[in-house]
Each structure stands twice: as C-alpha cells, then as structure tokens.
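Task: complex structure prediction.
Instruction: return structure tokens for all chains below.
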Amino acid sequence: MSVLPRRRNGEIPATDGVVIRMAGIRKVYDTGKVKVEALRGIDLVVHRGEFVAVVGPSGSGKSTLMNLVGCLDTPTEGGLADARNRRVGFVFQSFNLLPQITAFENVEMPLLFGGVGKRERQARVTELMDRVGLADRMEHRPTELSGGQMQRVAIARALAMNPDVVLADEPTGNLDTSSGGDIMGLFEELWRQGRTLVVITHDMALARRAGRIVEVRDGLILRDEPTGSVATLREARASHG
Amino acid sequence: MRAGLVFQLFLASSRVQKKRAVLTIASIAWGSVALLLLLAFGEGLKQQLSRGSAGMGTNLAVLWMGETSRPWQGLPAGRAIRPRVDDVNLLRERIPGLVGIVAEMRNWRTAFTYGAKTVNGRLTGSSPEYGELRNFYAQPGGRFIDALDEASKRRVVFLGNERAKEIFGDEDPVGKTLLINQTPFTVVGVMKRKIQMGTYGGPDAENAVIPLSTYVAMFGSDRVGNIVLKPERPGEMPRVLADVRRIMGAKYGFDPADEKVFPTWDTVETGSVMRNILLGIQVFLGVIGALTLMIGGVGVANIMYATVKERTREIGVKMALGARPSWIVAPLVLEGLLYTVVGGAIGLVLGMILIVLIGLIPTAGNDALEFLGKPTVSPLIGVATAAILGLVGLLAAYFPARRAASVDPAQTLRYE
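Output:
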C-alpha cells in the first residue's frame, strides 16, 4: 500500500497517476483464541480521478480495507497524523461531527490541524460550505441539521485539506433514500471536478453511479470492473470541454 | 501558534460538568487547606520552640563540677575538682573570644520572708554578666544586679516574676525589703516574663539572684557551683571548652581530655539536634498534608478519566482529521491543571483566612496553646505548597490524558 505524494493543486481530471496501490494485503484480527482473517490478499490500484465503489456484504472486509487505506488502522505512530490530515479525507456513516461546535468550526478543524492561517481558513470553509450547498447553515450546530445536511458538512470537512483521496465508509447508511441519493449526487459532482473517491457501500444502486465497482467477499476481491458511468463521465467532460 | 492551537482546542473541547467539577475542586481546596495549615502549624511550632529555647540564653554552655575519671600524673581517678570564684576570673583572663563567663552558686532551700509570709526556694549568687548571658531582663522600674552591687557586697536581690508574685502578691516589690535567711535584702528588680523551654534546676521565673560576693560572704564558701559561658562565635564552643579544661587541668592536676571533670551542657550542640528534630516534624506534617492533597488529586484524575472516556469518539474523530497526539493530550492536561489551580487557589485563600483567625485566639496564659505557637506562613511554605499542588495537578491530568492519546481511531469510529 502506498500513498503517493500530494498532487499539486490538481484541478484537471485525469486518470493517470496512482493514488492507492495495495498488493497482497492481508489483515488478521487476533482476538486471543480466534484469529479472524479480514483480508486475505487484496490487490487494488486506484488512479487519480477515479470514483471507486467498494461493495460487499457485511463482514466481507470492506471497512478493514478502508481503515488500512486511510491509515486509521496501523499500529505505528508519528507521521500518521500528517497523512490523515493532508492525504486522506474521511466521510463516515455516522457523520462523526463534533456536536458542541458549529458546522463552520467542524469544517475548519482539519485546517486548524494543518496549520492553515486564519484568513485562508475563513475563505476555504466558506467556499466549501457553499459547494455542498450549506452556505446558510454555517453557524448551526450539527444537532440543528438534518442527516443529509450533516453528511454534507462531513464531506466539506473531508475536502478541506484538499486531500489526494476522499474515503467514505457507508456515507448513505444512516440516511433515507432521497438524502442518500443527494449525497451520491454530490460525490458524482466531485468526481466530475476531478476528485478521487473511494466509497464503501452495500447499496448496489448507489454503487452503479460510481465509475468502478470493486466487490469484496471473504477478504478477497471477487470482482473489479468499470460501470457505464465512466462513459457517461467522458461524454460529460467532453461536452463541457 | 502551537500554544495558541492547544488553547483553542481546549476552549472548544472542555465542557465543564458542574457537579463533578465542584466536588473535585472542593477536594483539591480541602487538601490545600490541610497542607497549608499543617505546614503553617509546623512553622509556628518551630518558631515558638526556638523562641522558647532562646529564653534561657543562646549558644551557652553550662559546666557542672564533677570528678576525674582517669588517673593523671600520679593522681588517682575519682578526685572531685572544685574550682573557686577566683578561678573563673582566671579563665576570663586566659580564654580569648568570650562574650562572658560567670560562676553560679546556688542554694535550694532558702527562706524568703516578707511581712508574716515565708516562702522556701532557690537562691542564686552570680555576677552582673549573668543577666545578659541568661536573659534576665528587668520589668520597667527595676534593674539587674550591677558591678557596684558586686564590688560592695550589697544586699540586693533580683527576683524572678513567679517568685516575686509568690512573695509579694500584687504589690510592686521594687524598693521593698525582704528577709533572706533572716538577713534583710532590698529588691532592685523583677524579671520580665519570658518563654523558657530549656532549664537546669528550674525555671528562671522562680529564681532569685544576689551578687556573687554577697553570696560568698553569706554562705562562707567560694567553691563554684557551676560555670556559665558564651563564646563570641558558636562554632568556637569546642575550642573554648577545651581551653577551660586545659587551664583548670594545669592548675588542679587532671587530664585536659577528661570530659567527666566538668559535665557540660553545650546548647550549641543540642540546638542543632533540636533544629533537626523540628525540621523532621515539619517534613512529617508536610507529608501528611501532601497525602491529603493527593486524595484531591485522585479526584482530578478520576474526573479526567471519565472525561477521556466520554470524549473517546471526539478524540478519534480529531485523530482521523489529522490531530497530533500532543494536541489531544495538551488540552486535557490543561483542563486537569485548571481544576487543580482553581481548587488550590480557593484552598490557599481559605487557609490564609483560617490562619489569621487562629492567630486571633488569645494564647497568653494557656500553656498548651502557648507551646503550640501560632500558625505562621513563610515564603518557603508558599513555594512548597504551590510546588506540591502543581505536581499533584500535573500527575492527575497527565495519566488520563496519555490514555486519550492511545485511542485507536479505527476502533472508536466504527459505527455502533
């Protein structure tokens, strides 16, 4: 597994350049008596600008995969804080916004950790909140927002440090169908803008809207194929110039 | 920037649970009160004891007249050595670096008669220097015996305040005549009340002092009872005592190294022992206080562990967003320290108020209270209390915060 150096302000959508490369990754959870093999040899390459949906039944190893990619699940210390801050943006099923601070401050948090100056923080958070359509909700606390709105704040937060890849673990799992659809729409939009996205879901209807579906079962990749969406995206990009 | 960030994070994450915070702060405050009071009482006791031991006079040596313990130049052991009054004058001439050296002679069953009342007690004959060495200070209107009294063998007496009260009651004794062993004496002064913890042969308040020359004439013997001396520098005491034995040894024929000839109370030596004991008492009291405060510290640690547990998810989220472990730990340490500082400040203010109030209780006349002294705060006590408080706070906050840093984000963020 490797996370490549940060791209330089890359707005141009491109599918060259590898963002994630995993080869023969295994992960064993040792719970004392029982050893659970969550991943049994995963080979996965994600290129810049790809939108990958990872699907599979619960217990298949999807979340483990994401934790490894996101550096959440390694025993080592040190450079991890930096990697989490700059390379990866996380979106969680249960949003994981900090309830006692406003939406604005939640989005600001990674910028704060990244050492971004106050004025730039202000500008970036405002822009991001605008992009996820919540410019008028900046001073609201998470408890005053709907589930869909909370997830959009979380997405804005994931984008704040302009990371190489956005990892989303069941981002629609806690939302009703229509809000879930909206979130997936937002992901599609980000994809169109050139973002690299890895979304874990067990909703095949949503997964089909991604550019590529990776199906995991019993710790192995069962299927890895592009969807029709790629063609659609190419058309869309071509027509936009 | 880093410090600013830590403070920003602290403000954003600390949410005070009022009831818990109040209890914790109260326990720290109570610990601080206990620590401060115990240290202050220790200090008061120390000051009182050093005042008390100074009551008899400072850096003195008292020498009694004993016997030789080893043969010397053909003379057997067990000979009593009894110097005369003139020998003290010899010592005064021969030994350099002395504040004073006096002979003291005592009679334990002397009859003091005033009017129809007779009291039996102690009578001391000594020189005018004796008053300075042994802190006999006269009450207003009186004086200690002086050189003229000594030279002209006057029948004058200086009374201890208790003895004066016993004989004269509420009457002012100065200028009055009383009979000492049926001989008329004029009272020239009464001793100012003093706190005296060290004595030999009884407190000075119950003593009566007459000129040495008068005493010798009255009792017909010029053999010295004991010698009181004080060197200019306390460190020279061993040298001075050796000089006494050397000079007397040459005259009376005994080994100058024979310490049994003049059994000696060296208050310089016993004073340093006393200071060590007092220091020990203070440390002991301080440890008790610190342990009490430690209980408060356990309270802070407890509250911080609970806080970390409650905020595990929040901590996990922050780590996922790229917070360094130190940015998680530092705000929590700050929070724990804050409880300690607030509690400590309250405790110290309360403690100071208590110390002032205790200081207002009148102690004169109550021996136990007088012995205890008044609680006193010294700069050292302030520093010690602050240091112990800071240490307790830091330890109580650090360990829970360190646990926070070991939170595994993957574990805490898993959907429940």
